[in-house]
Design goal:
CATH class of the domain at 31-126: Alpha Beta
Number of helices: 12
Number of strands: 5
Strand order of the largest sheet: 1-5-3-4-2
Radius of gyration: 24 Å
Largest sheet: 5 strands, mixed
Distance between the termini: 26 Å
CATH topology of the domain at 31-126: Conserved hypothetical protein from pyrococcus furiosus pfu- 392566-001, ParB domain
Strand content: 5-15%
Helix content: 40-55%
Length: about 290
């Protein structure tokens, strides 16, 4: 839906009230309170991060045990009469604190005690979906999400911004996730691929993984010939095949979707498909 009055900024792109505003100094208190919460009372809210680096969790556990917690988590106690606290930010700190109980006394942790509580900023209200997205975007900036988790987060943010015109929608989702428009467009195209293909996409592919550029080519092909895109992805099983498919062309590089379609249909009719020619049928990647 286009903005009916271009002179009026789209509401979806206007600055939203900060959860903890730090642009001024007049207010002496913040909307929440600090509390030390025992680990057994902490639970995680739904979170786009599904994959964590075990080595990173181990390093964070050592830092917490050695120097203490420098950055508080952010959470909410749904029932004031129940000690349970839901964390919206602090997943890795919670995982590291729990891991410290197994690590304490082991190699590198000989003199360190396990962590029994975390410091949490308790919100005085239930955060809105927009506030949760902003909290998680800042958390992702500290420890980037894996590409699969970014895809999952984009799949959540994109429908939430329905109703905006395409450019405004992309810009708003970029603000929600803290990513660039180029990244957003790549994620949007990856989401058109079957799960089995999409989960193989990596920023730095290795083995049987697929690059973002290759994923974009497969997404273009999938729009026209889904079975061919799945066949191509299934046959790119090594780094060498991936590199060949990325560097060789099956036909003069088509510069439009119509040209790409003609190329795909011509190759399909002639039966002249190989692992390499299939992978390059859609022309140059637009990553």
């Amino acid at each position: 839906m286009l903005n009916p009055n271009p002179a009026t900024p789209n509401a979806g792109l206007l600055p939203t009230p900060a959860l903890f505003d730090v642009t001024g100094v007049a207010q002496s208190t913040v909307d929440g309170r600090l509390e030390r919460v025992a680990l057994e009372h902490l639970q995680l809210a739904p979170n786009p991060r599904k994959h964590t680096d075990p080595d990173g969790v181990r390093r964070l556990a050592r830092m917490l045990a050695e120097t203490g917690q420098l950055v508080p988590c952010i959470g909410r106690r749904p029932d004031p009469h129940d000690p349970a606290v839901v964390l919206f930010d602090g997943q890795r700190r919670l995982l590291a604190a729990r891991a410290s109980h197994e690590l304490a006394g082991t190699d590198g942790f000989e003199a360190l005690a396990p962590i029994h509580s975390l410091i949490v900023v308790l919100l005085d209200h239930d955060p809105t979906p927009d506030e949760i997205r902003r909290i998680q975007a800042q958390a992702a900036a500290r420890e980037p999400l894996t590409l699969v988790d970014q895809q999952r987060q984009f799949a959540d943010c994109w429908p939430a911004r329905a109703g905006l015109d395409d450019n405004d929608r992309v810009a708003t989702v970029c603000a929600d996730m803290g990513i660039s428009p180029k990244k957003a467009n790549n994620l949007r195209r990856q989401l058109t691929l079957p799960d089995a293909i999409r989960e193989r996409v990596a920023d730095r592919p290795a083995g049987g993984q697929l690059s973002v550029t290759m994923a974009n080519r497969l997404a273009d092909m999938h729009d026209i010939a889904p079975e061919l895109s799945e066949a191509v992805a299934g046959r790119i099983t090594t780094t060498d095949l991936h590199d060949k498919a990325s560097s060789l062309g099956c036909c003069p590089q088509p510069q439009s979707r119509a040209g790409m379609g003609r190329c795909v249909q011509r190759r399909r009719r002639s039966g002249s498909w190989s692992a390499v020619s299939l992978a390059t049928a859609s022309g140059p990647g637009r990553a």
